[in-house]
């Protein structure tokens, strides 16, 4: 998509970025999808559940997009007020109870309440709390951000940094799940191509996915945005690579 730098930036800086719907980027950016199809697999598990909980649901878009329903009740949590309001709007007609939660332990539920807990791209996974609210035999099913995901974006704006697996290492997730008493029954990884076709798409993305450049504002990074705009104009796209992993863990039978 061509366009004047100032117009593209101003448009992207003004658009609403609440919720977790990226449809504004249609035709302006692409990201390859993981091969396993998280939403479909999540729906299959919800359809077999009695009580389900979706942690850090964002605007509820993923949960709202599945046709299946748990047999008894469905609950979702969210901490950010704009996303909380969006989730309540998106999930009200689906019969999902949306609960405000600070994303810090403890979860506001009794021990052994849910036989399924899900979470797509959680900021932090509090494994001990997940284990506590699961029933014996219950399942945690989550797609998470992998190590150094999209580092090309951060590197462009903040400078190159030493690659490191950090807290988003899938094997670390396995170790923490097991330390909380859960059995990891599936762990898969994927590296996925991202392409940004205009500078407005980059601005929108950085305003929405705030951990890539935590102090991002158009004013602060205008020079870097201008440089990237010229690069996109010359090369046709800015390419980065995201990483995802899928983890499924089960609470053993006989554990309270």
Report on the architecture of this protein.
- By secondary structure, the chain is an alpha/beta fold.
- The protein is globular and about 60 Å long.
- The chain has an eight-stranded mixed beta sheet with strand order 1-7-8-6-5-2-3-4, with helices on both faces.
- The protein is 33% helix and 25% strand.
- It has a single domain, classed as 3-Layer(aba) Sandwich (Rossmann fold).
Give a topology summary:
Layout: H1 5-14, E1 29-31, H2 38-48, E2 51-54, H3 61-64, E3 73-78, H4 81-91, E4 96-100, E5 114-120, H5 127-133, E6 134-145, H6 151-158, H7 170-179, E7 183-196, H8 199-208, H9 222-235, E8 238-250
Parallel strand pairs: 2-3, 2-5, 3-4, 5-6
Antiparallel strand pairs: 1-7, 6-8, 7-8
- Placed side by side, the strands forming the largest sheet appear as 1-7-8-6-5-2-3-4
How do the helices and strands follow one another from N- to C-terminus?
HEHEHEHEEHEHHEHHE
Beta-sheet strand percentage? Answer: 25-35%
CATH architecture: 3-Layer(aba) Sandwich
State the CATH superfamily name: Vaccinia Virus protein VP39
Helix content range of the residues, please?
Answer: 25-40%
The count of DSSP E runs of length 2 or more, i.e. the number of strands, is 8
| Structural class by secondary-structure content | alpha/beta
- Supply Rg: 19 Å
Taken together, the total number of domains comes to 1
Low-confidence stretches: none
> What fold name goes in the CATH topology slot?
Rossmann fold
Number of helices in the DSSP assignment:
9
């Amino acid at each position: 998509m061509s366009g004047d730098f100032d117009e593209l930036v101003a448009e992207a800086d003004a658009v609403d970025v609440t919720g977790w719907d990226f449809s504004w980027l249609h035709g302006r950016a692409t990201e390859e999808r993981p091969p396993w199809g998280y939403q479909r697999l999540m729906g299959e598990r919800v359809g077999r559940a009695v009580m389900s909980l979706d942690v850090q649901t964002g605007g509820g878009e993923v949960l709202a997009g599945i046709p299946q329903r748990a047999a008894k009740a469905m609950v979702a949590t969210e901490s950010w007020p704009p996303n909380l309001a969006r989730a309540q709007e998106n999930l009200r007609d689906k019969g999902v109870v949306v609960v405000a939660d600070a994303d810090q332990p403890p979860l506001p539920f009794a021990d052994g309440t849910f036989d399924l807990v899900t979470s797509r791209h959680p900021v932090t996974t509090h494994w001990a709390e997940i284990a506590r609210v699961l029933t014996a035999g219950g399942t945690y099913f989550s797609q998470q951000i992998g190590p150094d995901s999209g580092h090309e974006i951060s590197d462009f704006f903040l400078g190159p940094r030493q690659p490191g697996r950090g807290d988003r290492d899938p094997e670390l997730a396995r170790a923490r799940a097991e330390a909380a008493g859960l059995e990891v029954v599936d762990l898969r990884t994927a590296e996925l191509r991202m392409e940004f076709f205009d500078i407005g798409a980059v601005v929108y993305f950085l305003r929405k996915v705030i951990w890539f450049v935590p102090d991002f504002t158009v004013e602060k990074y205008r020079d870097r945005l201008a440089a990237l705009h010229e690069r996109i104009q010359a090369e046709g796209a800015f390419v980065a690579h995201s990483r995802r992993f899928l983890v499924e863990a089960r609470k053993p039978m006989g554990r309270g």
